């Protein structure tokens, strides 16, 4: 049995990889919150650094039934390539996750029934962190994610230990433009353009 466990952990480690493309650093952790949690503040507790992803001392647990929603905003737009989760085991394992992108306020349970999610995932019951690749086209420019976990195995409570994301930050277009320079080979063209603009400005001034 021990050898099987080691084999599973090794495979999972290869799947999860490293923290190079972790989006933890661009999550707006102070603004993370949730719905139907036994302790509301626990929404922030499951957004952990990469090195704490296997920790089970902190978790979020649903309150009156097996449904819970976590709302996770980012400090800048990101491209999300995959989501990583560590779930409770046994009767508290959620079997379904609906992911809603770019809702400025949290998707509540009523909205979740009428809004089409960007993705509906069937979750696996794993002991460690499991990575689920996402359709990059659907999550190419994301500023918030609402995660709706439900349908626990026992049907009464859901528990989440860890939520993380892989991807990359989207550099604002205006920053990219501000760094553009005129190549030396085109410097003469640039001077001609400047003279044309100056002449046009002079004409406008005369017209007034």
Automatic annotation (TrEMBL):
Residues of the signal peptide: none
Taxonomy, superkingdom: Eukaryota
PROSITE patterns: PITH
Domain PITH: 12-185
GO cellular component: cytoplasm; nucleus
Similarity annotation: Belongs to the PITHD1 family.
Protein's name in the database: DUF1000-domain-containing protein
Organism: Gloeophyllum trabeum (strain ATCC 11539 / FP-39264 / Madison 617)
């Amino acid at each position: 049995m021990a050898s099987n466990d080691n084999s599973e952990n090794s495979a999972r480690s290869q799947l999860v990889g490293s923290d190079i493309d972790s989006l933890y650093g661009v999550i707006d952790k102070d603004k993370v919150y949730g719905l139907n949690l036994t302790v509301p503040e626990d929404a922030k507790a499951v957004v952990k650094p990469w090195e704490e992803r296997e920790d089970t001392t902190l978790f979020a647990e649903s309150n009156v039934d097996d449904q819970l929603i976590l709302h996770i905003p980012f400090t800048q737009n990101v491209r999300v390539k995959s989501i990583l989760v560590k779930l409770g085991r046994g009767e508290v394992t959620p079997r379904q996750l609906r992911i809603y992108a770019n809702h400025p306020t949290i998707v509540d349970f009523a909205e979740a029934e009428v809004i089409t999610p960007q993705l509906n995932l069937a979750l696996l019951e794993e002991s460690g962190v499991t990575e689920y690749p996402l359709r990059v086209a659907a999550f190419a420019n994301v500023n918030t994610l609402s995660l709706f976990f439900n349908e626990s195995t026992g049907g009464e409570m859901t528990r989440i230990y860890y939520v993380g994301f892989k991807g990359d930050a989207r550099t604002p277009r205006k920053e990219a433009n501000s760094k553009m320079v005129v190549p030396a080979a085109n410097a003469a063209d640039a001077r001609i353009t400047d003279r044309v603009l100056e002449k046009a400005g002079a004409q406008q001034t005369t017209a007034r």
